[in-house]
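Data availability (excerpt). The following record was deposited with the supplementary files.
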Amino acid sequence: MPQYLAAALPSFLAPLTGLIDQGGPVVLLLFCLSIVAVGLILAKVLQFSFLGVGRHNGARAALALWLDGKHHDAQSLAEQKNSVLANVLVKLMSSTHLANVDHVLLKEDIERICIQRINVLRAYLRPLDMIAQTAPLIGLLGTVLGMIEAFQAMQGAGAAVDPSVLAGGIWVALLTTAVGLAVAIPVSAIVGWFDSRVEAEQAEMEALVTAFFTGGVADRGTAEVVALDIPEPRHAV
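Predicted structure:
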């Protein structure tokens, strides 16, 4: 790392600048990837919080009111809740009041909306996964390059090889692999956690849409059929 840049950084970052000086450009690249990963993770946490991922109780309560025939109360409750599920439920409830709405067509179209919502939740998970997968490989590349450099130095020394110099070159080379793993392991764990949240949201979304159309007959014992305001066909006299 350039001296002027190291001097401009706060003193508590001195161990980090020392690590970059020892590891070279490979560690600097891994450090940049770790900053990108932290930024993406914070963005996903804020997105999940803003979209209400995991908040299912409000949508479930609204669906129960709807199946009990309290359509106005159900729609009002769903509109008050800030969550992905509640948003999908509001679209379902609003669509049932539209004229010329086909039952099958509405079900297919709400599946399209659910897919869009899931795709939004999966945004930026792919770059995080790529960082988790490539960081160890970048670290391993740094180790291989360091080992090549160390053995070249040993060859240049000829018969007067100092084992301590060789050992020093090897541990510096292994440093890049350690940094790569240090970046990859937490990122991989967090990506897995995000994936599990999205899968849980998708499962809950499918269950809610299915219960809306079937009336939850398996749980409630009686089915509340979704009423669509479809006008009767007119016949010529």
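Summary of structural features: The CA atoms of residues 49 and 115 lie 19 Å apart.
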